[in-house]
Fold this sequence. Notes:
Layout: E1 16-18, E2 30-34, H1 39-50, E3 54-59, H2 62-71, E4 79-83, H3 89-103, E5 108-111, H4 125-153, E6 156-161, H5 174-194, E7 199-206, H6 227-238, E8 248-251, H7 263-271
Parallel strand pairs: 2-3, 2-5, 3-4, 5-6, 6-7, 7-8
Antiparallel strand pairs: 1-4
Amino acid sequence: MRACHQFDDTPFYPAHTFLRFGNNMKTEKVxxxxxxxxxxxxxxxxxxxxxxxxxxxxxxxxxxxxxxxNELKKYPVQTELIIGDITQSDLMSEQLEQVLKKWGRCxxxxxxAGIFIYGTLETTLEDYKKLFETNFKAQLVxxxxxxxxxxxxxxxxxxxxxxxxxxxxxxxxxxxxxxKFALVGLTESLHAEYxxxxxxxxxxxxxxxxxxxxxxxxxxxxxxxxxxxxxxxMKGLLLLSPHAFVKxxxxxxxxxxxxxxxxxxxxxxxxxxxxxx
Length: 277
C-alpha cells in the first residue's frame, strides 16, 4: 500500500504564501501538488518543474518546503508555497483562491497528502475523523476550488493518489482502507460527471512505494515501486488524446509471499510512532 504517515506532534504553521510571479503566468501551465515536501509529492513536483509547469506546492512542513523551493530555482518555472495543514479548509481555500485568481488557471491537481492510522473497530471515532478529514475531505475541498478554472479552460486533470488499500480491504486496516475507498469512489463519480467537459480524473492506487515513510515494510526497498514511476504514469496519462479517459490505475510490486503484510510488525511500528505503509 502507499506509504502514509500518522499524525504526530509536529506543530502546524498557519497557512500563508510566498509569492513569485512571472510576466506571463496566465499563458503557462500550472500544477498544484499537496504533500510536496517529501516522497511522491516531491518527486512529482520536481518532474513537473522539469517539464515546464509552474507550481503551487502545499505542505505543513515549512522548512522542507522552502528548501525544496530553492532547489527548484534551477528550472525556468515559478513556484508558490502554501504552508499549512490541508485539513484547515477555510485557510487553504482562501490562500489557494488568492493564488489562482492571480495565475488565472489550473491545469493539474495532484492530491497526494494523506495519513495512516492502524486498526478497524478498535480505532477511535476521533481517529476515523482525522483519516477522513485528511484522506478525503481535504481532497474534496481542493477539487471544489479548482473545478471552476478547469471548466472555464475546457480541460484539466486531477490525480488522486489513493492506495492499493483503496481497492482491497485488509484486515486490521479498516480505518485507513475505508478513507481510501472513499477517495477512489469520489474519483470515479467525478470522472463520470466531468469527462464530457474535458476534465479528467484518475485515482492512482499504488502498492508499496520506496519512500522513507515505507520504513519497516515487508518488502525490500529495491523491489518497491519507485516514486518516479508515479510521475511516469501521470505524464503518460497527460499525453493521451482529449477523448481518452482512465479513471483508475493500479500499480503493484511483484506478487511474492512476503508481500502479505506482517500486521504484528506493523502494529508495533505504529505504536512506536514509526512511519508505516
